[in-house]
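As a next step, we paired sequence with structure tokens, yielding the entry below.
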Amino acid sequence: MYHGRTTGKGASTPTQIYEQPPRILIVHVALPSWADICSNLCEALQNFFSLACSLMGPSRMSLFSLYLVQNQHECILPFVQVKGNFAKLQACVSELRTLQREGCFRPQGTSLQLAVEDGLQQFKQYSRHVTTGTALSCTSLEITILTSQPGKEVVKQLEEGLKNIDLVRVRRLQVVEITKGALDCMDAASPGEEPSSDESSILGTDIDLQTIDNDIVSMESFFKAWLHNSGTDQEHIHLLLPSQSFSSISRGRDNPMCLKCDLQERLLSPSLLPGTADGSLRMDDPKGDFSTIYQMACQSWASRYKLRVIKALKSSGVCESVTYGLPFILRPTSCWQLDWDELETNQQRFHALCHSLLKREWLLLAKGEPQSRGHSLREPPSIFYVIVPSHSPTLLVKAVATRELMLPSAFPLLPENPPDDSLKIVEGVLDGLELEPTYNPLQICSRLYSHLSSTFAKPQGRLHPSWESRALRKAGQLQANRVRATVAPLPMTTAPGRAPKVPATSKASSEALFQFSKEEEEDEEEEYPSGP
């Protein structure tokens, strides 16, 4: 992973804990394997975009661009904001579905290299044209290449082709190989974690090689990782544990052991999506659960949010009915601003804490440190959390109720001997149920994707001609009047003896192309306003 470069200047804003860097996805189409992966990839992209475009609150994805590489590279989607542009994203997925799946063509050896160069040029051009009031929060981008070809060969090809290219603005260059067989080490309960990874840093920018299975769930999980906060500019949480040493001068509270942690969501809040079961409980300010630790952490960049451990609890001593809100995951921080010795020591102590809690069968009760009140005389109420260990090097954090929130309830003890006839009937019903050893949420579907996609459906009788024709375009046919990128394309390499084809877009200046693309985007937004 790349940890050596900041992605922005100045202090972070609260919304930056959500926002990811601009991304370019390069889909490498190679026959005949494209026929095997096309349907799964398109379905996964469609599902992901329906989710990403529907999420309320701060934008988790800023700019996105899509390239296609067959016998040459082609930008089928210039940089657009993800939110509010589901129609364009869906049209690109439809275009991928129409690509040639049989036959053969002669791929250019430099097509992937040219796609990377063109995407980088497009990002630089876009950055120069962005107005001051909407300046990009990230000054570097991430490029992902999806391929069914052997990943190591693709990495070597990129290393050779890009060795003389300035990649200082590329935060991460990633090659993802889609494999045919199932990977035994894939953990279905941890989507987004790739089982195979290798890196090369010959270019000064790491090339991250990963593999994913050729199935919809694996591809969805890979794309959903883009919704995580992967920034490493600073740690999110300080977990404070009482010091071992106590004296009349210094007490444990004054000199606690501090573990620096990063915070990660375990699941998306249903309150951020339209049409979910608890959508009626959504607050006026659509930022999710106001009481969650994630919201508080993103509001406290100047002084890190602190969790102070006040006591230990037996693992069996906390009833699930007194926890509330979304769970979150704590990991040892990967903040690049810390030196390696501090990172290593912090990680070792974090792992030792996980091991010791499991061995003792303990949980931790922690109190959120109050934020700086400034000039306000009101002291905010404290929020308490239980910290649960697991067999992975992570801790689960769940908000726990306090006296003020509890309602009186009476729970008499369960009778020891229920009537025999009732017991026999219920036992027979239970015996008919299928028994699973664990609950795997990836095997349960709620039809949420189709519901979200339907909220973006175009009104009847108002079909946009340019995007309708794009979806119906047959493989290999290009529309001469369609603007394909915000910058003039790089020259294509051609076989000896063949005259090069000059794209229509190269006849105009890059500034004119950008202006035209910008106006087209504004027209599209007026035609199809974004969903709730």
Remarks:
- Residues 34-54 form the longest helix (21 residues).
- Residues 311 and 457 are 53 Å apart (CA to CA).
- The chain is about 25% helix and 20% strand.
